[in-house]
Amino acid sequence: MTNTYDLHNPTIETLLNRRSIRAFADEAIPADVVDTLETVAQHAASSQYLNDWSAIRVTDPAAKASLAEIGHQPYIAQAPLLYVFVLDEHRNAAIAAAKGVDVDSDAFTLNGSYRYSQAQNDAVLALHAMETAAYSLGLGCVILGSLLNDVEGLIDLLALPKYTYPVLGLAIGKPAQEPTLKPRLPKSVQIFENTYAVDDETILSDIADFDADVHRYYDLRNTERPVDAFSDQIAKNAVAPMGAKVVEPLARKQGFRLDR
C-alpha cells in the first residue's frame, strides 16, 4: 500500500521547528489574531467536557511588571501578549451550586485530586493549542513555568478565587531573535512499545551522547556562560528545594483536597 501521508506539511513543520522565543519586537498583536488564538485554545480537548480551565490575558503594565518580578525574567513585561492559564473548577462549582449541589459537603468531588489533575491537563492542552497556532502565524512564544516561583503572590495578583490554581503562563509576540533548535532526548529512552522495557544501563549509556549534544548546543548559544550537561542539570534539580512551589498547602488553601 502506498504511503499517502504528507510528512512535511505546514503543521508538522511548525511543531518540529518549535523553539522558545524570549525577545519580542515592540509590535502589538492585532485584535483578530488575539481572538483567533483564544478561540483555538477553546477548541482543545477537555476531560468529560467540563471545560475546567480559564486563561487570564494580562494587559496592565503594572501587573506585567509584577509577573516579570515573580518569574525573575524581565522579558515577561515586554511580551505583547501575555496569558496565565489556570485550572478552574470555580465556574463549575458555581454552576453546580445553582443546580442545588452542596459544594461544601463531602459529596462534592470537583475539588478532589483527580479533577485537579484533569483540569491541569486541560489547561496545558489549551495552552499548547494556542502556542502552536501562534507559531503557525509566524509569532513566537515562551511557556512561563517561572510564574510558579511565587504561587501565592500570583493568586493574589490575579485575584484567583476558590477552586482555581495557576498552571503556566504563555508570552507571545513577533520574534526578535532566532535561537537554534534545542536537542531532544534519544527516542530509545523516551518512546517505548507496549511496556516501559528499557533498563537503567541502557538509559545511562544513551544519555552520554545526549549530554555532549546539549553541551554543544549551550556552548554555541552562549559562549560567555557555560551550561551544565543534561545529566548534571537533572542531578542539580533532583535536590533543588521547592520552597513556595510545593503544591499541596496552597492547593488546600484554594479549596482542593488532594488527599482524595
Automatic annotation (TrEMBL):
Q: State the signal peptide span.
A: none
Domain Nitroreductase, by residue range, is 16-174
Care to name a GO molecular-function term for this sequence? oxidoreductase activity
Q: Which UniProt keywords apply?
A: Flavoprotein, FMN, NADP, Oxidoreductase
> SUPFAM superfamilies under this entry?
FMN-dependent nitroreductase-like
Task: Return any one Pfam family short name.
Answer: Nitroreductase
Q: Record's InterPro entries?
A: Flavin_OxRdtase_Frp (IPR016446), Nitroreductase (IPR029479), Nitroreductase-like (IPR000415)
What PANTHER family does UniProt report for this protein, alphabetically? OXYGEN-INSENSITIVE NADPH NITROREDUCTASE (PTHR43425)
User: Per the similarity annotation, which family is this?
Assistant: Belongs to the flavin oxidoreductase frp family.
This chain belongs to which protein, by name?
NADPH-dependent oxidoreductase
Supply the source organism for this entry: Bifidobacterium simiarum
